Amino acid sequence: MSEFAAYAPRSAEGSVRHEVDGLVVREAVAADLEAIAAIAAAREGEPVETWRDRLARSLAESAEPDRSILLVAEAPPPSGVVGYGKAALLSMSANAPANAPPHGWYLTGVVVRPEFRRRGIASALTRARLERIAAMGREIHYVASAGNPATIDLHRAFGFVEVTRDVRLPDVSFTGGVGILFRCEPTMRRP
After folding, report:
1. How far apart are CA 63 and CA 153, in angstroms?
2. How far apart are CA 64 and CA 69, in angstroms?
3. Residue 89 burial (CB < 10 Å; 0-12/13-18/19+)?
4. CATH no. of 24-184
5. Dist CA 73 CA 152 (whole Å)
6. What residues contact residue 26 under an 8 Å CB cut-off, 6+ apart?
């Protein structure tokens, strides 16, 4: 897996942040598959075909909004789809380890094209996913690598709090070896 995007938190004075005028966050459709697969493949340094197959499954699952969500962020032409975000209702198997995360809704990834990062797109995708899940009155979780301060800070702004650093997910390894489970109540803050 490729490394996380370089991250430099804003100073107390703040940094100039250029929002994307005309950005639209919406449900992904079949016509978005190539764009989101290209974004994922570029980030992970893997073939587009691999991600096309994975994201096609996510797209099919999102047809059941009580189980899965796949959203895209679209900028005006010529930019098109500049990022995507996923969420899913997850359950661990009966033989899962004691430190497996609990059953519930999880934010399962947000990826933004490099040239559009730090412009509020990940926040817009996170806000939209949280609003959908919160409308169901459900508690929301996510698991992050301790080595990814950008995502930790992003989610902290929405009211996520750390639950434990002793969490294991099947077939998932964390950069630096430490995964953190976070939780947010359905009445989360909206930065």
Report:
1. 30
2. 8
3. middle
4. 3.40.630.30
5. 20
6. 71, 72, 74
Distance CA 64, CA 58 (A): 10
Q: Which element (helix H / strand E) includes 141?
A: strand 140-145
Q: Identify whether 76 is preceded by a cis peptide bond (ω within 30 of 0).
A: no
Strands lying side by side in the sheet with 68-75: 24-27, 68-75, 80-90, 104-112, 140-145, 179-184, 161-164
pTM of the model: 0.87
pLDDT tens track for 132-182: 998 888 889 999 888 888 889 999 999 999 999 988 776 677 767 788 999
- CB 74 within 8 Å of CB 125: no
Q: Which residues contact 23 (CB under 8 A, 6 or more apart)?
A: 73, 74, 75, 82, 120, 121, 124
pLDDT digits (tens, 9 = 90+) for 44-54: 899 999 999 99
Distance, in Å, from the CA atom of 113 to the CA atom of 45, rounded to the nearest integer, reads: 13
* CB-based contact 88:110 (threshold 8 Å): no
Q: How far is CA 65 from CA 24, 35, 107, 153, in A?
A: 19, 22, 14, 27
